Amino acid sequence: MTKKKKEKQNKFKEIYRRFKREIKLHEKSIEVIGSYAYKSDKKILKKLESILDKAKDKRLNLSVTDIEVLMEVYNEHPDQSFLFRKNTIVSIVSLLDDVFSSIFRDYYLQNPDKLSLENQSINYTELGHVSKINEAKNYLINKEIEAILIKQGIKSRFEILKNEMDVSIPDNNEHLLEVNKLIKTRNLIVHNSCCIDQEYSKKYGDEKLKKGDRIPLSEQYLKNTLSLVFYIGSYILQSVQLKQFSKKLESNDFILNDVMHELVKKENYTFLKEMYNFAKDSDLDDINKKMIVINFCIGLKKQGKSLSHIDKVLEQEDWSVEEPTIELCLSALKEDHDDFYSKLETLIKNKKISKRELLDWEIFSLYRRKTKFRKIVKKVIE
User: Fold this and answer.
1) 363 - beta bridge partners?
2) Do 170 and 235 form a contact (C-beta atoms < 8 A)?
3) 310-336: per-residue pLDDT in tens?
4) Average pLDDT across the chain, whole number
5) In the chain, which residues have pLDDT < 70?
6) pLDDT tens digits along 212-221
7) pTM
């Protein structure tokens, strides 16, 4: 494989790494900063209520001090929790924009003839903004991407992937509807003070939500949105990568197994099943196929599915392979505990499993509470 092709493969992995890193940062932000904002709001509201209760229950006029405290709290309380959630939604949508932007930039660099007619040439005025040929190319591509991401909307993005690039896109209409709702919500946050307009009310509202009402943004909605964006972004990245390289890809260049692993960790089982179905129809090498099945079966096991149910999925793959870590995973999934512990000890002794893998791999989540497992890995972890 040429150096140029290898760099291009790694480019997809780099986009995914950056995307996943930002997803994790947002998860931590929701957990820590979002929680802090909520507690701060609650504390201030409690202070307000105590002053109002004093006036109401004791039928007393508020003192000057009480009024000053009330005004201070009122003036300094911007509803931090809601402000955090609005900003988070805008930031989450930007993550998806970045994935689309990276994909389209690469596509138009390879296929400049696919640019819209207005962006296949540069006028005299625009020439004043560039000094080199590459700058001119980037200028035109940036204009094209800006039009797609901002003016044309999410529907146009998927149409380009499917119709122009011949790339598979998620086929679950409910997920695509939620993405459309998310983009609309972001636009209303930025341009309409997060208030519902007629289009939102008609498409996504209910009897309780009417035009002019503030869009409800719960913590759970943030988490669900982050999961949706991770799924959509990862799906199209892998789909574009497979379309461009297919069998030319080396095993460790696929991003799909890491996606599956993350979905198991997050317990996003609906997305896990859909990603598994996508993988089954993809042209993957043998090891990746097996790891896809294993990750899916770990998810089934964590959902409480029976051993016979899991066996039926495993039977679809040929497991006659001498790969110690895969054999270890099979022992765990088939609940052959003695064999699992024996293989684990051997792998640890031969330094085939690292401390990070023992802490991170989801196959070990099936054993981490067991005393024998803890004893075996104790020396490695410590």
Assistant:
1) none
2) yes
3) 999 999 888 987 889 999 999 999 999
4) 85
5) 1-9, 54-62, 73-78, 117-136, 151-152, 246-252, 379-382
6) 899 999 999 9
7) 0.85
**C-alpha R_g of the chain:** 26
